[in-house]
Each structure stands twice: as C-alpha cells, then as structure tokens.
C-alpha cells in the first residue's frame, strides 16, 4: 500500500484514475465524492474520516516544512506573532479565488456537483489562516477568568483554592491535548471539522452532535450575556450611577452590533493580542489599587462574604464593618454549596476547550495548536492564580465578582473599569463570533441550505444575524439578578462538560477505533468500501487493549470524576439560585445598579 504522505503530496491515491472525481464523461468515479455527501452524512465511516485526515496532516507537514514562515516557530514567535502568512498555499496554479467558488452555494448538493475535488480541498485550505501565536492570544482573551478567580479563592480558602485550581489547570491542559488528538485524527480538507459537535457526530452519532451544539450555543450566548452585564455594572459605577442601569447594559449590547461584524479568527488575532495585554494591565493596576485602599464596603451586599454568610460583611450599630478575614480551609464548612459555587468561578478560567475545534479549523498548521494551547494554559495558571491570591489577601470576604468592581477610590476604580470594558468587549465579540458560526452552520446551512459565510450572500446574512444574536444575549443577561450565580450555573452545566467531561469519553472511542485497525483494514478510496476483518464486542475489546490501553483506563476514570464534579456543581448552583430568587433582586431592566446601595 502506498504511503499516505506520498498520496497527499502528489495529488491523490496512485490506484485511482488520473481524472479522479471529474464529471461530464471525463471520468467515472467508483465512490461518492466528499463534496457530494450531505453535511453530516451518517454513512461516512470513521475509517474514511481517519484516512483523509492522515492525507491532510501529511500535506500540512510538507507545506509547513517548505514554507519560509514555517521553518522556525519559537516561543517568542508565538507570543509576538508576525502578521505575515495567509494560510497553506495551494498545490494548483489555479487560485482558490477562482470565480466558481465564491458564487457557488456549497451548502446545496446540486450546486456542489459542479465543484471538482481540487476546488473542494482548495476551498478548505483557503479558510485556514490563523497561526499558533493567534491561538495563544485567542485562548487567553477570556475576560471572566482572571477577575472571577479572587472570588473563587475567597469561597474556598487558601489551601483548597490553590489545590483545586492547580488540579483544574493541569486537567484542562490534558483535555486540550485530547481534543487536539481528536482533531488531528478526524479533520481533513475533504471533511473539515468545524466545531465540537462534529467530533461527537463522527464518533457517537447525531444525538451527540445535537447535545454538544445545544450546550455550546448556550455557553457562548450566556458568556456574551455575562460580559454585557459586567460591562453595564462597570459603566454604571464609572458614571456614578447617574445613567439608568438598563441603558448602561443596553449600550454594550448595541456596541456588539458593530464589533461582531468581524467574521474570521485571523482578524481577531491582533484584537485578542491587545485584550491580553489590557487584562494584564488591569491585573497589575488593581493589585496596586487594593494594596493602598480599603475594600468597597458600600457594595458589601454583592460581595463574596454576603453569599457565604451575611454576618461576615454586615456593619454593626455604629456603621463599622467587620475586619478583613482569611481562612486556611473553607470559610464556612456548613455552607458547602457556596464554596462549590465559588469553585465554578475558577472553572470559568479554563472554559476555552469548548472552542478549541473552531480555533484549529482556521489554523494553517494545526499541529502547532498544542504549543499555543500549553503556553496559554501555563499563562492562565500562573498569572491568574497569583492575581487571585493577592486580591484575596487584601480584600478577603469583601471581594466582588468581577474583582475590579471592588476598588473603593473612584479615580482608580474608573481606570480599571474603562480598561476592563474595552477588553471585555473584545472577548464578547470573540464568543459571539463562534456562537453565530455554530448556529449558522448547524441550523441555517444544514436545514435551510444557507450559503457559506465565505460567499457574498453569506456575508450579508452575517451582518443581519449579529444584531439579533446580541439582542438575545442582552435579554438573557438582563433577566439574571445574580452575576456569580449566573456564572456558576453556566460553569457547571456547560463549561465543565466541554473542558473535563466530554474530551475523555470522546477520546476513549476514538482510541479504540484507531487502535483496532489492523494491517489491510481501513478505507479503500478506489472502491469507497471499508475493509474490516471483524466487528462487534471482539473488535472493541481489541481496540481497548491494543497500544496505549492505560490511556483508555485513564479516560474512563477521568470521565467519571468529571461527571461527578459536574453534578455537584449543578446542585450547588441551583441551590444558590433558589436562595437568590427567594427575595426581590435588581436586574438590567431597571435603572438601579446592583452596586448602588443608595439607589
């Protein structure tokens, strides 16, 4: 059998006719071409996905080796990426911007019949333009991660906080590695992976795809909602509560109409770059501010201490507030649910796994993703933890969520708020970008045969959809009265699943299917048939025990542990929301800000 790399580099399988895949009497193929398949065709086997993935990886490796920009990619080039390079070059002299492709609605099978194999793969290559440096910044753009972490430490105490955050950080990196392996083994130019749901579909079927897409859509739109509300609170505080709180939030929803028009992740690269450095500036500034000023006692009603035990932040008859307190362990073991809710804020810092597939799908060389991912995880762990511990040391039970809202001196408070609003808007635009793509590709394209976003008509549909998406995000966020409670339920129901529960169970089946392949088995492109010497339980057991069987055992243990943690988080979040909703709460439909106790 010819080597996969040879097939990828000289144009196809040498066993096929020279005019493989052509129509109009030029040649007749012996199998259904990838572009003629339905978008999610259940008849495509794992072995076919895996076969084309190996071809694509071999071609990427060769082009990366030959490209001048790919010869040296060190740490500095990841953190300070070059603007050069627009993607993997085509093998054909005919450019992908041939008049045929932009005018062809490839969502319609009848229109795809006119697309050749070369045009189909070139179209897939053309959208892959992001670099490892861009990925590093996209992952670390998360605005909610660092500024929710002090709240997490305040609810868990020094010891449990550091231990749990360390464990979550290590396992988030492991999950990222698992997702990367899944992408490398299932994605190809012929069958590109677009989102998390596509992996579920290729391994477990349509039901997994629907589940993942629903949860991913919920997480993304609620993340946008959270940022709209946090920015609304920051703006209300910056204008000294003189502007109606509902308007403060609405302004950020409207701002999303415009920043959301950025369609490709490559264009987000430099914005994400700026957002990371802005976040670092906010971190350093707020650390300096809290070291030279007392907590914002006037907002004690929305502090972490109030959620644990109101007596911790309630002033006495003389108006004197309790002193700042710290604990080595849980601050109130009798209120275990509050500590679990705080822990969910830490989970938010590692919520990027959900959109790793989208990041890799737009990378020119996805093999480099693992470098950008580990760099981002290490950055998140070190910087975020140091920030969280420092803020907890100076503000204790009076910490706010997000933490920059708890600065007591107005001038300093405003500096942090303004910077945070800019950075948060960039992060919200990124979440909205991915969220709209998930909905567009899985609803508009699949059910209504909408044109791809690379076409002129698709671009205009994007322009129309963005305002609707941000409007819905505003409505959702405005209806939730408790910011920390909102983040806790989103973390437990969505983020924890995508980062910790789903990766091991997906990788388990992928590893079994891959390891079960023996010499002579697999997809035969000459006939379109899949050759397997056995099936059923016997094959599954052989795949489980072959090769790195210990990784399969670890995946099972990891999955069960993550599932139990998710169940615990959901219980704590629901209990917390029941308590919150038992009394009247302020929301973004009114004019009084949650931070304005005099309103």
From TrEMBL:
Residue stretches making up the Amino acid transporter transmembrane domain: 133-513
Cited Pfam families: Aa_trans
Transmembrane segments: 134-153, 165-186, 207-228, 240-259, 271-291, 336-357, 378-395, 415-440, 460-480, 486-510, 549-574
Principal cellular location given in the protein's record: membrane
Membrane topology of the entry: Multi-pass membrane protein
Keyword Electron transport found: no
Protein name, UniProt field: Amino acid transporter transmembrane domain-containing protein
Protein species of origin: Stereocaulon virgatum
Classification lineage: Eukaryota, Fungi, Dikarya, Ascomycota, Pezizomycotina
